[in-house]
Write a structure and sequence with these properties.
The complex is a heterodimer of chains A (294) and B (346). With 294 residues, chain A is of the alpha/beta class. Chain A is 38% helix and 22% strand. The chains are: A alpha/beta (294), B alpha+beta (346).
Chain lengths: 294, 346
Amino acid sequence: MTSHAAVRALVGGIGVVAFLVVGAIVTALVLVALGLPAESRADDTPPTPAPIVEPRPTELVVALTLGDPVLQAGAVRDGQVILARGLEVDIARDLARRLGIPRVRFVYVRPASRLLAAKVRPWHITIASIRPVRAASAVADLSEPYLGTDQAVVLRRGLPRLTALGDLQDKVTCALRGSDGARAIAAAVRPAVRPILAPSNDRLLQLVQTGACDAAVVPAGTVGRFVIDRGGLLGPVTARVELGGGYVVAVTRGGPIAVAEVDRALERMRMDGTMHRLARAWLGIDPARLRALR
Amino acid sequence: MCVPAANPIAMKCGVFLTFVASALALAGAADAGVSVWFVEGEKPVSVVRNGTTIESAVRQLIAGPTPAERSRGLRSAVPRGTPLLSVTASRRIVTVDLGARFAAGRDAKALRGRVGQLVRTVRGIPGVLAVRVLLDGGVPVGLFPGYDLRRPVTAAVEPVHQQTTMRDVQRQLVDLGFMAPSGLTGTLDTQTSTAVLGFQKWANLSRDGSLGESTVAALERATRPEPRFRAPGRRIEVQLRRQLALLIQDNKVVRAVHISSGAGGKTPTGSFRVYRKERYSWSVPFKVWLPWASYFTGGVAFHEFGSVPTYAASHGCVRVNHYDAEMLFGFAETGTPVSVFDEAAV
């Protein structure tokens, strides 16, 4: 029987659809037996080598910029951070543990622009208050945020807690000049009274302490330390104004760490309370647990 | 700049020398000892210790105050037991390498304070221009708020209250509601003194109108005066014991005004309302013009007067100084509630 006749017999017996299904299965089995990818057979090109999977490192190399006593600070010798501490440092250490990497080495990168601009990045991840802007995502894989950049509201003493964004409209609000807080006041609060824009954080908190300002809008990540520094001279950190976004981990492309792994680890840190504990320890409050004003 | 030859770590200009500081004989300073800096409250205080070298000064700084000094209130922010790894000097810049314990703790004030103590102690040694601090041989970055230790430090950061300028004080008085923004002049004038008096009354400090240490310290920690009662709208509270009038809008004190009420309890206590206002009011019994008069009961009014002492001195009216009288007159619209009370009695 010729192949043409056989086809006709099959068509007559089990139909076109069944024939095509069987044909596809047979083709796939043959290809698997030959060990070739499907597309290579079609154009007869040589087989593509399997991607090289970098072995899991025994040391997670983390780039830091240092400079913030709460987020990351340390002592630097020959480009290595020999003493590192801060919220981001602790997050990096916890990440390494969850990624199954026994050791962490911190390297100091200055200026901060080098983190993303450097052609060679001899580190696996960067954790340095990076925002997921286009320039960052063009050169590195960015994780989900580990710390939000929402703004917190600190009231002067004697004011009742806020329940809605509208409660702020008739108050004297204040923020650092040119800050996200100032933008949040303009975009989200839209106050009836002209806000005060302070030139420094000290001045800003002084305004709230003295009651010249009713409510300061400051980064949720830094509000805890101000309130702690000022003892009982300020009212409560009452809520936050949502801006969205946050600080992300930049994962070096082509390295042994996948951003999905980092995301999973960060999620587990959130779920098991590690992030909350670290935030409380370093920031004084956990910004994620402040009620959002709407 | 050349260093005087008698200087203990004198070096010729332009000559680069490095040597271990413990080898430095502080000739001439041996008899006097070394000054080691601690703090009393927030105020830096030095004590003299035996010793002739920079190293001995730093070691005694780390050792902290003696029990006798502690009982006098001296404290140190430097953690006891901080290892001193080395002290070297080069071009009159002293490098102090300490163990990581020096950075222990998270309290910003303590971290800033210990660097201040170290810098004062080392800079206090004649001839030292600057201090470089290392931790385990590394350069501290961001560990000590207020200091950039990536380069040598020439001076300690002063405690906040010692940085206070007259303009800072005035700004604080304005922010707290004791003075109008027009009082921001940068000089200690009568308007500022009047506002200081008002603040001293509120804070129960001695009423002298001068900016002594206790007043400046109290100002730094002051919060805006709170009304005694809560009620909506615009009103005035006259606190007889403090001799203060609080101008209140929706439970927020917008201004606190230094006043002098009736001597011997001649200003009646109770709840009243402003019922008559006169730009110039002629006082028939006392034959005197009373500018910016706002009457709230009988012949009792808020008004401007040349003499507003720190105590109750009037015939029953509430005297207000020149700086606040017009503002108070504008605030006290007809019908504005006025509560007059002795704080001890309510």
